């Protein structure tokens, strides 16, 4: 290179470089966890999603979560042509070592980066009783601006065998897989309905849906034959995205409340010493910090001996005109102010709990305490 | 877009005088060099620093000649030093391809150091794979240490502190990070301990040395430290069945104003975080405190790496993110031991990984600093197990009385 002279060239004005956000929503790929009993139809669902002519490019990861496997198998649907391309997704085995993102998340991010365009990822679990650990791993902080995000948990249920599976082992202290998989679901696909009532006529199916709702009233139930479901109902649910689904959350929770009130005749307390849903309301505004402590006692300290699996709600907070959304999976929770309350909306706290040994009185009473400011009597 | 990044465009400081800078060297722009080394407040300052500044161009030009191995390293390759790849599981004689974010490059690394057989070793020492740690219940529940375990941790952390201090004393321009690693390795063994990083998931060395734009997990290699560098040395010692973990960022010779501010701010972030530790405080709160402190100086907080529980395991629950608005679970209780180790960047918070599978660098090539302590929550507050001692080298100007 030529010798630089004695005098410097003219210095140039610095353009303030705008650090572009690394992802826009287009690049953030939703991950759907698909769970369910052996034979319920998980693989059928996956095949349906892959092969349906939808123009979406979808990757399926077959995940032996919890096992020591370094490499997972991924099948990617190449969009229009529908050809399936199989490739290996390598899980950088371990090094939990002070990284915030689990190796599964890192592997999924690498997959997204490698592919020219990926519209969605399905994570098909096999032999997994409880999808909660997977949800914890995938429900990332917004701050991480990850290329992947948890979209929803879908449980495929076998209509023919559900009743039997729910009866399971009542005498043992551990709840059957069926309860847990339904409890954590955002969508329940009630499959093989043709085997229960071939003409499609009601009774038996409605009873099954009631059973499912008594466990988890938050989930959407979709009836299907051979898992032929409309993709728009199961992809892009954004079930864990506080900012996006706030309006839906409010109406969702309100609907759940209505549903529960309707089915008061179903004394869910006796039916299952298992899992159930309840909704509590509190018309007075709450002190945010007190709600946090209250929730943490329930989720982290297992207060009152209650075991909460999922929680979703809207909060009406003192000294704020913002509607706050609340979401929890096991011990992980977040309360996020999302938007101003609308004029026509009643500013009431509504919280839905799904869990085991839930005590409605205790929950309602203790939530009430959160409305008291320290100076009030 | 969701989340709103906390990264704020920093005011650049003039390389010559430290005042806010809005001009940059056009040659540096052409060579795509880091802006922080090329910023000036006026043409006069630029002119005044020109004689020394243009060496930056020469250096950059030399290091980018060819994609192969820089000439200075050919000798080392011949002696068996190799570049590290695949998280430590492979070696190569040539510099790997990568779109390097800054001016730093990996150098070849020396062969594996040995540990005498009489020293108690963790289960990854032989085959590189931790067996107990990944499966342990302590990945999900935060352990309350017994008085006996606490006493052991005090001792081990004290050793780790002494080892880091020894490393600090070795730092000066012209010394390689491999040499620092040798100091750490030998000091650890002399105390009867095992250097935990060695062969942990195949990590090839006994400590991490992170220079300039390296955020963490830098691998000690043949590169000589240069006047103006900042370097973090991260030491973990395994002794009497427990680990003690700490790190500090040091100045090499005379560093620029921006680096001084970065390092001091990072120190203060850790200090501030430690000051709120006591029973009942949520782990999540640490990220809020650190983030606030960093933002005040216009710096950003690394989000991919976090503090961690420590004890009989090297890494276990809790996970402690250093950024704000995180969903960390749990509150502090007396008897818990964990690290807080904020990594603070001059520029953006994002990180990238080098081809070696370990070294994390800033996405924009600007500098990053870190400090770490192992802490014990006491009934009333906190005990800093890896605290500086009166004998610790006096290398931080802001600590002078």
Automatic annotation (TrEMBL), chain A:
It holds the Pfam family CobW_C. GO terms for cellular component: cytoplasm. It comes from the Eukaryota. It catalyses: GTP + H2O = GDP + phosphate + H(+). Residues 31-222 form the CobW/HypB/UreG nucleotide-binding domain. Keywords: Chaperone, GTP-binding, Hydrolase, Nucleotide-binding, Zinc. Belongs to the SIMIBI class G3E GTPase family. ZNG1 subfamily. This is CobW domain-containing protein/CobW_C domain-containing protein. It comes from Cephalotus follicularis.
Automatic annotation (TrEMBL), chain B:
Its cofactor is Co(2+); Zn(2+); Mn(2+); Fe(2+). Gene3D superfamilies: 6.10.140.2220, Creatinase/methionine aminopeptidase superfamily. Its EC number is 3.4.11.18. It is found in: Cytoplasm. Keywords: Aminopeptidase, Cytoplasm, Hydrolase, Metal-binding, Protease, Zinc, Zinc-finger. Its main location: cytoplasm. It catalyses: Release of N-terminal amino acids, preferentially methionine, from peptides and arylamides. Zn(2+) 3 binds at residues 234, 245, 372. Residues 11-64 form the C6H2-type domain. Binds 2 divalent metal cations per subunit. Has a high-affinity and a low affinity metal-binding site. The true nature of the physiological cofactor is under debate. The enzyme is active with cobalt, zinc, manganese or divalent iron ions. Binds 2 divalent metal cations per subunit. Has a high-affinity and a low affinity metal-binding site. The true nature of the physiological cofactor is under debate. The enzyme is active with zinc, cobalt, manganese or divalent iron ions. Has high activity with zinc; zinc cofactor is transferred into the active site region by the ZNG1 zinc chaperone. GO terms for cellular component: cytosol. One of its GO terms (molecular function) is metalloaminopeptidase activity. HAMAP family: MetAP_1. Cotranslationally removes the N-terminal methionine from nascent proteins. The N-terminal methionine is often cleaved when the second residue in the primary sequence is small and uncharged (Met-Ala-, Cys, Gly, Pro, Ser, Thr, or Val). Associates with the 60S ribosomal subunit of the 80S translational complex. Belongs to the peptidase M24A family. Methionine aminopeptidase type 1 subfamily. This is Methionine aminopeptidase.
């Amino acid at each position: 290179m030529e010798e630089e002279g004695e005098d410097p060239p003219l210095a140039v004005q610095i353009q303030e470089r705008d650090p572009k956000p690394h992802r826009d929503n287009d690049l953030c790929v939703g991950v759907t966890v698909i769970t369910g009993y052996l034979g319920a139809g998980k693989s059928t669902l996956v095949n349906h999603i892959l092969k349906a002519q939808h123009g979406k490019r979808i990757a399926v990861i077959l995940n032996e979560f919890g096992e020591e496997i370094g490499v997972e198998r991924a099948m990617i649907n190449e969009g229009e042509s529908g050809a399936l391309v199989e490739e290996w997704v390598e899980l950088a085995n371990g090094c939990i070592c002070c990284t915030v993102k689990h190796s599964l998340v890192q592997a999924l991010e690498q997959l997204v980066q490698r592919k020219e365009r990926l519209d969605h990822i399905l994570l098909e679990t096999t032999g997994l009783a409880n999808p909660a650990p997977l949800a914890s791993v995938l429900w990332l902080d917004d701050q991480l601006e990850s290329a992947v995000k948890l979209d929803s948990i879908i449980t495929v249920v076998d209509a023919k065998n559900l009743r039997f599976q729910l009866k399971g082992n009542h005498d043992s202290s551990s709840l059957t897989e069926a309860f847990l998989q339904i409890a954590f679901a955002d969508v329940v696909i009630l499959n093989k309905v043709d085997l229960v009532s071939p003409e499609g006529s009601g009774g038996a199916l409605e009873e099954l849906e009631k059973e499912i709702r008594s466990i988890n009233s938050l989930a959407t139930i979709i009836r299907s034959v051979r898992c032929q479901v409309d993709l728009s109902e199961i992809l892009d649910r954004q079930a864990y995205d506080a900012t996006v689904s706030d309006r839906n959350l409010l109406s969702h929770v309100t609907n759940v409340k209505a549903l529960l009130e309707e089915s008061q005749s179903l004394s869910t307390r006796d039916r299952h010493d298992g899992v159930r849903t309840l909704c509590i309301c509190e018309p007075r505004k709450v002190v945010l910090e007190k709600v946090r402590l209250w929730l943490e006692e329930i989720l982290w300290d297992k207060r009152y001996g209650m075991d909460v699996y999922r929680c979703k709600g809207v909060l009406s907070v003192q000294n704020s005109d913002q509607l706050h959304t609340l979401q929890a999976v096991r011990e992980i929770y977040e309360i996020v102010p999302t938007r101003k309350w609308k004029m026509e909306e009643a500013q009431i706290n509504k919280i839905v709990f799904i869990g085991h040994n839930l005590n409605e009185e205790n929950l309602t009473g203790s939530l009430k305490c959160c409305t008291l400011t320290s100076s009030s009597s | 877009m969701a989340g709103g990044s906390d990264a704020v465009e920093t005011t650049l400081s003039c390389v010559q005088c430290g005042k806010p800078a809005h001009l940059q060297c056009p040659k540096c722009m052409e060579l795509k060099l880091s802006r922080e080394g090329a910023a000036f407040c006026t043409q006069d300052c630029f002119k005044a620093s020109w004689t020394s500044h243009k060496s930056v161009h020469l250096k950059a030009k030399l290091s980018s000649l060819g994609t192969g191995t820089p000439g200075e390293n050919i000798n080392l390759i011949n002696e068996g030093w190799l570049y590290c790849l695949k998280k430590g599981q492979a070696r190569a004689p040539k510099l790997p391809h990568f779109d390097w974010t800054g001016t730093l490059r990996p150098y070849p690394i020396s062969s594996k150091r040995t540990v005498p057989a009489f020293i108690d070793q963790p289960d990854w020492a032989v085959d590189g794979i931790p067996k107990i740690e990944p499966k342990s219940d302590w990945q999900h529940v935060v352990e309350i240490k017994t008085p006996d375990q606490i006493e052991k941790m005090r001792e081990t952390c004290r050793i780790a502190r002494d080892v880091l201090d020894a490393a600090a004393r070795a730092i000066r321009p012209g010394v390689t990070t491999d040499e620092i690693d040798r100091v750490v390795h030998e000091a650890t063994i002399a105390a009867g301990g095992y250097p935990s990083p060695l062969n942990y998931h195949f990590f090839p060395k006994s400590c991490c040395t992170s220079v300039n734009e390296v955020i963490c997990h830098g691998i000690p290699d043949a590169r000589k430290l240069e006047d103006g560098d900042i370097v973090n040395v991260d030491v973990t010692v395994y002794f009497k069945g427990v680990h003690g973990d700490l790190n500090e960022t040091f100045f090499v010779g005379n560093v620029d104003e921006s680096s001084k501010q970065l390092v001091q701010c990072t120190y203060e972030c850790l200090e501030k975080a430690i000051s709120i530790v006591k029973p009942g405080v949520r782990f999540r709160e640490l990220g809020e405190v650190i983030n606030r402190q960093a933002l005040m100086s216009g710096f950003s907080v690394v989000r991919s790496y976090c503090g961690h529980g420590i004890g009989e395991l090297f890494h276990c629950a809790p996970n402690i993110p250093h950024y704000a608005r995180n969903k960390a679970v749990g509150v502090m209780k007396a008897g818990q031991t964990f690290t807080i180790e904020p990594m603070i960047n001059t520029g953006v918070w994002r990180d990238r990984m080098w081809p070696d599978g370990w070294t994390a660098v800033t996405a924009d090539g600007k500098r990053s600093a870190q400090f770490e302590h192992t802490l014990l929550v006491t009934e009333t507050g906190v005990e800093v197990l890896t605290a500086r001692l009166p004998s610790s080298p006096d290398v931080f100007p802001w600590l002078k009385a």
